[in-house]
């Protein structure tokens, strides 16, 4: 374990040094923000503040999505003649693993709403209670999920595909991942605590460093020890467990060696079952869990429909989703920057500035997503080939990737507007719009593609449906300003008294 800890520390120091310099990620985001400022659509000072809070999360996203892509690429490279089966198995396990992030990320939205508002109001005792309550909620929910993965993985994967070899690979991967589900959920909550307290760099160092370590461990387990798919899963579990331990230690001590001072500290001796905070975390987080689950649950029938095209198309879809994750990393930063800055200004009882931040960060997100999509479009074919899939899957994947580069752009509106609404507690409507996008447009399109002459165009339309409908709905909801009244139900008493 000391070796793992040392590896994470080295990775974190490397990321910290990169962050201290004028790094390309911050440079691109700031350049886009200042360009929008020159056009008069955003304020320069707000663009800089949004950049400073968002770029570390984007770096974290790049690291973690690169890890997900590396999982598939390494498994494909190690599997040789059965690469399509192995890649497809990992792809089928993906939505189950996504349940950890659906629950953890959902309730973490409640965490960041409460923490950012209490941080803005300087109510640090209430902040600590909110954090402990969030940990209780996430642990209670994720342990049963992980247990199900451990005990019945073959049955779960078998629900999605009838190919015995694909099911075997997927079940091996999912069973081991079950051990990491609670750690993945707690990572999300802990990172949102720090982002809500206006510090995104420490989560970047820990989660980004963990992703780098994860890739290293995958390489060792898969290629050195010859563990194949199981090695990829064990690397993920080990990295998540270590990062969780570092987050908890840092929050308790208020600092970590090599990382620095945390913006807040949380005593482990306080109240854990504070009913008011548990209720707030659940009431804010449950619609976000529903929103996340809409996508996660929809992935199950989506994979069934895609599997109807054949293993080559399922392999291509799995590869495209990994590249989609890389294109989507700007949302990691802008959505949480919107949550933090909107929440902090609500904690200061400054509703108008909160509204301006929500609008301007959304504009920055759309512009950044466009750049991200353009880069992937240019590199589509070499990126697909790098995953090591069999030749019949490559042209299918290239077409899907190009369609995804168009569909990903509305994600900038969808994710950032949803992040702003999360900070206010107005989380019901983003959930509803996500349901409409997935179940009224995306899934029907994929099914028609599998059963009619539409063919693979159904999958292309499915990509667009899952982002465009909630993008329009979320931004419209934020523009109405109805979230201002809703946010008053969750603000700390000090802000309301002011």
Keywords:
83% helix, single chain, mainly alpha, 498 residues, 21 helices, disordered N terminus
Determine the number of helices (DSSP H or I, runs of at least 4 residues).
Answer: 21
The secondary-structure element order is HHHHHHHHHHEEHHHHHHHHHHH
Please report which band the strand proportion falls in: under 5%, 5-15%, 15-25%, 25-35%, 35-45% or over 45%.
Answer: under 5%
Fraction of residues in helices?
A: over 70%
Regions with little confidence, pLDDT below 50 for 5+ residues? 1-5, 7-21, 494-498
Overall pLDDT metric: 85
End-to-end separation in angstroms reads 49 Å
Looking at the structure, what is the overall shape?
globular
Query: Order of strands across the biggest sheet?
Result: 1-2
Radius of gyration: 21 Å
The tally of strands reads: 2
Content-based structural category: mainly alpha
Largest sheet: 2 strands, antiparallel
Describe this structure in words.
The chain has 498 residues and is an all-alpha fold. It has 21 helices and two strands. It has helices at 2-20, 24-38, 44-79, 83-121, 124-151, 153-158, 164-177, 181-196, 201-224, 228-253, 275-307, 311-327, 329-347, 351-378, 380-385, 394-407, 410-424, 428-451, 457-480, 483-487, 493-497; strands at 255-256, 260-261. It has a two-stranded antiparallel ribbon. β1 and β2 form a beta hairpin. The chain starts with a helix and ends with a helix. Residues 1-5, 7-21 and 494-498 have low confidence and may be disordered.
Strands, helices and their partners?
Elements: H1 2-20, H2 24-38, H3 44-79, H4 83-121, H5 124-151, H6 153-158, H7 164-177, H8 181-196, H9 201-224, H10 228-253, E1 255-256, E2 260-261, H11 275-307, H12 311-327, H13 329-347, H14 351-378, H15 380-385, H16 394-407, H17 410-424, H18 428-451, H19 457-480, H20 483-487, H21 493-497
Antiparallel strand pairs: 1-2
Helix pairs in contact: 1-9, 2-3, 2-14, 3-4, 3-9, 3-12, 3-13, 4-5, 4-7, 4-8, 4-11, 4-12, 4-13, 4-17, 5-7, 5-8, 5-11, 7-10, 8-9, 8-10, 9-10, 11-18, 12-16, 13-14, 13-17, 14-16, 14-17, 16-19, 17-19, 18-19
């Amino acid at each position: 374990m000391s070796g793992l800890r040392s590896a994470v520390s080295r990775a974190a120091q490397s990321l910290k040094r990169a962050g201290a310099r004028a790094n390309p990620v911050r440079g691109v985001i700031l350049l886009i923000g200042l360009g929008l400022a020159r056009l008069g659509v955003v304020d320069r000072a707000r663009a800089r503040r949004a950049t400073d809070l968002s770029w570390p999360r984007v770096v974290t996203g790049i690291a973690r999505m690169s890890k997900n892509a590396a999982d598939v690429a390494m498994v494909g490279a190690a599997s040789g003649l059965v690469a399509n089966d192995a890649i497809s198995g990992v792809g089928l396990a993906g939505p189950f693993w996504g349940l950890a992030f659906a629950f953890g990320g959902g309730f973490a939205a409640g965490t960041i709403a409460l923490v950012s508002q209490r941080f803005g109001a300087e109510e640090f005792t209430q902040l600590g209670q909110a954090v402990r309550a969030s940990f209780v909620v996430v642990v209670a929910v994720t342990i049963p999920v992980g247990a199900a993965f451990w005990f019945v993985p073959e049955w779960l994967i078998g629900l999605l595909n009838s190919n015995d070899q694909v099911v075997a690979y997927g079940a091996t991967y999912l069973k081991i991942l079950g051990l990491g589900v609670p750690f993945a959920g707690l990572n999300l909550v802990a990172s949102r605590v720090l982002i809500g307290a206006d510090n995104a760099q420490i989560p970047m160092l820990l989660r980004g460093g963990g992703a780098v370590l994860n890739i290293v461990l995958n390489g060792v387990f898969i290629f050195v020890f010859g563990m194949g798919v199981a090695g990829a899963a064990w690397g993920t579990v080990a990295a998540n467990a270590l990062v969780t331990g570092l987050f908890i230690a840092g929050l308790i001590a208020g600092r970590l060696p090599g990382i620095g001072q945390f913006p807040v500290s949380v005593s482990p001796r306080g109240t854990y079952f504070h009913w008011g905070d548990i209720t707030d975390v659940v009431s804010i987080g449950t619609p976000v869990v529903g929103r996340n689950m809409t996508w996660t649950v929809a992935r199950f029938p989506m994979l069934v429909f895609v599997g109807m095209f054949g293993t080559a198309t399922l392999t291509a879809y799995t590869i495209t989703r990994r590249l989609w994750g890389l294109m989507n990393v700007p949302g990691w930063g802008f959505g949480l920057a919107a949550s933090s800055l909107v929440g902090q200004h609500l904690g200061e009882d400054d509703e108008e500035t909160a509204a301006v931040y929500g609008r301007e960060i959304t504009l920055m997100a759309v512009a950044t997503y466009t750049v991200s999509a353009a880069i992937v479009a240019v590199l589509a074919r070499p990126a697909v080939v790098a995953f090591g899939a069999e030749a019949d899957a490559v042209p299918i994947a290239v077409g899907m990737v190009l369609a995804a580069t168009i569909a990903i752009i509305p994600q900038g509106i969808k994710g950032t507007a949803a992040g702003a609404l999360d900070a206010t507690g107005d989380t019901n409507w983003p959930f509803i719009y996500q349901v409409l996008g997935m179940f009224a447009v995306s899934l029907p399109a994929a099914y028609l593609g599998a059963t009619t002459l539409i063919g693979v165009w159904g999958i292309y339309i499915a990509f667009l449906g899952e982002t465009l409908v909630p993008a329009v709905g979320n931004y419209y909801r934020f523009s109405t300003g109805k979230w201002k009244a809703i946010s008053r139900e969750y603000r700390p008493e000090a802000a309301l008294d002011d």
